[in-house]
Amino acid sequence: MSPHRRLSHHSNRSPTQIQDIFIGVAMQLHSQPPKLKTTQDEGRDLEYTVVLHDGTGVVESETFHTKFYGEGKDEDGLAEEAKRISREVLAVQRSIQTEKGMNVRLVAIAEPIPEELRGKRGVEFFPTLWLHVDAVPFVTTPSTSIFTKLPAPSTQASATAAVSAAVKHLHPATHSATTADIDPTDHHVQVDCDGQVKLCSIVQYRESTSDALWKRFMALANHLNENKVSISFFSATPQGGGVALMRHAMLRLWKMVGFDVKWYVPEGHPTVFDITKSKFHNVLQGVSPKGVELNDEDKTWFELWTEQNYETFWSNGAIDASIIVIDDPQLTALIPIIRKKRPDAKIIFRSHIQIQSDLTDDPSTVQYRTWNYLFDFVKDVDLFLAHPVKFFVPKNVKEKLPVLYMAPSTDPLDGLNKPYGRASVRYFRQYFNSLSQQQCGVKIDWDRGYICQIARFDPSKGIDDLLAAYLEFRQKLEASDSPPLDNGPQLIIMGHGSVDDPDGAWIYEKIHDTLNSKEYDLVKGDVAVVRAPPSDSILGCILQGAWVATQLSTREGFEVKVTEAVNKRVPIIASDAGGIPLQVKEGKNGWIVPAGDSSAVASVLFDIYEGKKQVHRDLSKKRELDGKSDPNSVAQAWVGDLDEAAIKVHADESATSEDFWTVGNSARWMLLFDKLLGLQLDGAAKGEITTEDVGVLKSMGVGEPVAGPEKNDEGINVWKMVMGDDLLDGEAELI
């Protein structure tokens, strides 16, 4: 393809769907030209090529030339010049999206990026691509870089190589997410395609966080790095479910501050995942069918599976970290192996589920027998962490182990929570309807509004209650004095699957069985049930536009999807299961109903529709939008301003706590690491540790041990330990 071809900015085609396109960019900054008699900076020629790739190959390209004026400029001047160049490149990308009617899903930048454009303060090119343009930014070194003794490839060749390499990392089921790559040698998760994806920088995390929390986070990071602390997390899967989402976000942030953390996952086996889901998870939550119980053969398979994963992947360094964290029961059999190989290791067990302690404490129950099998592994850890619900901790844990409580978290900058502008809303609505019509034949009429529940297809998520509530709500509308001509809002039920969750398929089919019964004739054409591909973006975008969100779990650990709805300013109706009530401020950002009470849900929906109940959260004066405060308008205003700072996660009194977000969660973990290792403060600034850091660390009790069970019968919320005197009213509660 000739490098002199030009991009066709207009198209006369009339496709029925928005076309996905992927962009490659390569740059070359040429030498400063010889000085002329004039003292004016003549500028250096910056050549950059933009290529368009449709998933099968490059279809168009154009090489551009612009001037880079850097001579005699200080760092601020160079930053402004780099910003000007980045906006010029962004303008090309936006013209492709707006004028050609294509949706740019990925922008791959070829290394080497000129040093003069790299890492300038105030220049946030990659985060702008992700947060404002909704394209995945990918930085890669073309394979031709090995030829150091040959002429450098053209910018067109490098741009083509970059985008061709990057598209291979897109998930095969969706163009809006990359694969969760795993190192084949030790099975550590290569977060963000091993650092090639650049969704955000530390600047956006700082902007979204309060000063009080940020100074604690940085002080802890400096102290742990000064002491060369290393951490290994072990959990069941690299993708699917809340634990994986948290780990991706936390490792992304920790890498930005140089903290040494790795996250390992096992090679899965269907027999074992059936055991861990149906005979561990569901049994402990009290939602398994009668007669389901762990047997001796199950125990043998489970333990052999763990041993073989250790021998194959983790026996050569994975457990050599300062602290090892085990997430949930799936890898509890690894604990005695660690104790044998690393008797000095500090081990934390983190429980993320609702353990029915009334059942695990009763010797006559299957829960008692199941938990005591697992506790034989767990009893050897140094700390037990649970969601902030005392009921979730069995009696033998409280008697024998230190217990602390902390909430899970979600990330303000990932696909679930970032704002989506008009172009992305249009794209994902079209994509959703395509999925919905393929899977269940239902098309959402976006003008009618919709109720939305985002959750895994799990027996504890209250989906039967949601269907019953929606049916009753629609019956109330029909019986009202003025029934809506369009029949009122529709219902969306959407969730991901997970490789360790065999329940998903039969729950998904069970929903369709219910909807196709005669009882549901009134609504079955208005309920879209969609098993989404592993793209957080479609979940986040559809949730953003909901009239009302629901989360009606009957059993629940915490379910941070509630916080995600609140963050988007979407009113939520949620059950009182587990830690859900800690996230809802009644009448301010949503309503709590008794778990399993579908009529209560229907009544709240009807009252909202009739205007008897409403949640109105005022925007700050800076963000007034001509009277528009709906979530989509708020998002569009932010996305359209490329210089707008990231939105604070605790932007007003109706927002949820910073405790439930990545920086808060990371700070909690770091404080526990610091205290569990018994790291001391010498009282003076040292290395990266400033005098202010020393004071902040002392205020969090760094240098003091984590209390044992004899001193800490009930345990406390770690968030209280982190924030101390800066704790806001109503935070760090236990229920």
Question: Which key phrases capture this entry?
Answer:
Rossmann fold; Nucleotidyltransferase, domain 5; six-stranded parallel sheet; 735 residues; alpha/beta; 23 helices
Q: Characterize the largest beta sheet: strand count, sense, and whether it forms a barrel.
A: 6 strands, parallel
In CATH terms, what is the architecture of the largest domain? Answer: 3-Layer(aba) Sandwich
**Strand order, largest beta sheet:** 9-8-10-11-12-13
Q: What structural class do helix, strand and pairing data support?
A: alpha/beta
Number of helices: 23
Low-confidence parts:
619-625
Coarse morphology: globular
As a percent range, the share of strand residues is 5-15%
CATH class of the largest domain: Alpha Beta
Task: Output the radius of gyration.
Answer: 27 Å
Enter the CATH topology name of the largest domain: Rossmann fold
At the fourth CATH level, what is the homologous superfamily of the largest domain?
Answer: Glycogen Phosphorylase B
Mean pLDDT: 90
Kindly state the number of beta strands: 19
**Helix fraction bin:** 25-40%
The N- and C-terminal alpha carbons lie at a distance of 65 Å
